[in-house]
Amino acid sequence: MSTSTVTQPPKKTNRIGLEVISYRGSKTTLCAGCGHNSVSERLIECFYELGVSPYDVAKFSGIGCSSKSPAYFLGLSHGFNGVHGRMPAIATGAILANSKLLGLGVTGDGDTASIGIGQFMHLVRRNLPMIYIIENNGVYGLTKGQFSATADLGSTLKSGTPNELPPFDCCALALKWGATFVARSFSGDKRQLQAIIKTAIAHRGLSVIDVISPCVTFNDHDGSTKSYSYMKDHEEALHELDFVPAFQDITVDIPEGEVMDVQMHDGSHLRIRKLHRDFDPTDRLAALGALEEAEAKGEVLTGVLYVNTAKPTFLELLNLGEAPLGTLPEAKVRPTRAALDELMEELR
Ligand SMILES: Cc1ncc(C[n+]2csc(CCOP(=O)(O)OP(=O)(O)O)c2C)c(N)n1
Ligand code: SF4
Ligand SMILES: [Mg+2]
C-alpha cells in the first residue's frame, strides 16, 4: 500500500516572519459599508507590509464608532480606549512612559474637533511622536448622527435640517498649530490612504491624517458633504503618492521629471508625482493657501499637505534620553529621603 503526503504551500509572511493574521483584530461590529472599516483594512495592510511588530504598537482612542475601530485591527498590540475627547492626554502619558512604542491614535471628528479640540490642540503643539487618524464623517455616528464641528456649512442632516455653523478644518488647524505631518485622504481611496499611512509610520513626530470616512447610516445622503457620492464628485488629489520604505532599494526606478522625493527620518522616501499642481509639501503657507482655495471652490483636497522633519519632538524637547522612563530603576526616578528632606527644609 502506498502512502502519499500532502504538502501545504508555504504561508505568506512579511519581513519579520509574521502572517497577515497577526495584524488583524476582532470582527467588526460597525455598519457594513462604514468608511471606518476601510481605514482598519488599510492599517492592517500597512503595518503588515512594512513589517512593524504589532507588539511594539500602542493603540489609543476615545469614544465613538471610530474609536471602537482599534478593536478590529492589530489585535496583538497594546490598546487603551479612553474617555470621549481625552485620548491625547492618555497617549502622551503612555508614550512618555515608553518612548519605544509606536503610538497609533484613531479618533472621530466629534472626539477630536468637538469635545476634544483642546486636547488635540496641545498634542499638535507638543509634536508628540504618534500617528493621529481622524475618521471624519461630519457627525456623531455612535449617538445617532448629530452634526459635529467638522460638518460643512449648509450640509444637511438625514432629516433635512441644515448646519448653520462654520466647520473646523482639522488639517488647517493642525498646520496653524505647528503640526509636522498633515495629510487628508478619503476612506475609499485605497492607494492614496496606504501611501499616507506608510509615510506616517516613518515620520518621527505627530502625523495628523484626516480621513473623510462616510457614515452610511446617518450621513450618506444627497445633502451631505461627507458622503461617498459627494467625495466621488469633489475629491481633488494634490498629487500621486508613493512610499518607498528604507529597506527597499531607493536608487532604482526614480522616474524623471515631475517627481519630488521627501526623505523621512528612517531613510524611507515619500515620493510625490505631481499632477496638475506645482505643490511643495514642505511649504506650510502654501498648504494653508491650497486648503483655503479648495474650500472656496467646494473641493476636498487630498494628499500629503505638509511634512517637516526638522522640528524636535516632545520627547527630544524634554531630553528624555534613550531608555524608556518606564524601564528606569527606582533609584533613578525616585528622589532619596535625604533629597526630599532637603527640599522640605527649603520650603519652610
Ligand atoms: C463625556 C462624554 N460626552 C458625550 C458622550 C456621548 N458621545 C458618545 S460618542 C459621541 C460622538 C462620537 O462622534 P465621533 O467622534 O465623530 O465618532 P463617530 O461615531 O462619528 O465615528 C458622543 C457625543 C460621551 N460618551 N462622553
Ligand atoms: S453609525 Fe455611521 S459611523 Fe457608526 S458604524 Fe454605522 S456607518 Fe459607521
Ligand atoms: Mg464622526
Question: What do these coordinates show?
Answer:
The chain has helices at residues 35-50, 65-68, 87-97, 109-114, 117-126, 170-176, 190-202, 228-234, 284-297, 314-317, 330-333, 337-347, and strands spanning 57-61, 78-81, 102-108, 130-136, 139-140, 146-147, 181-186, 206-212, 235-237, 239-244, 259-263, 269-274, 300-307. The protein has 348 residues and is of the alpha/beta class. It has an 8-stranded mixed beta sheet with strand order 2-1-3-4-8-7-13-9, with helices on both faces. A 3-stranded antiparallel beta sheet has the order 10-12-11. Helix 2 links the parallel strand 1 (57-61) and strand 2 (78-81). The structure holds thiamine diphosphate, iron/sulfur cluster (SF4) and magnesium ion. The site of magnesium ion has 9 residues, from helix 4 and strand 5.
Short description:
This protein has helices spanning 35-50, 65-68, 87-97, 109-114, 117-126, 170-176, 190-202, 228-234, 284-297, 314-317, 330-333, 337-347; strands at 57-61, 78-81, 102-108, 130-136, 139-140, 146-147, 181-186, 206-212, 235-237, 239-244, 259-263, 269-274, 300-307. By secondary structure, it is of the alpha/beta class. The longest helix has 16 residues, at 35-50.
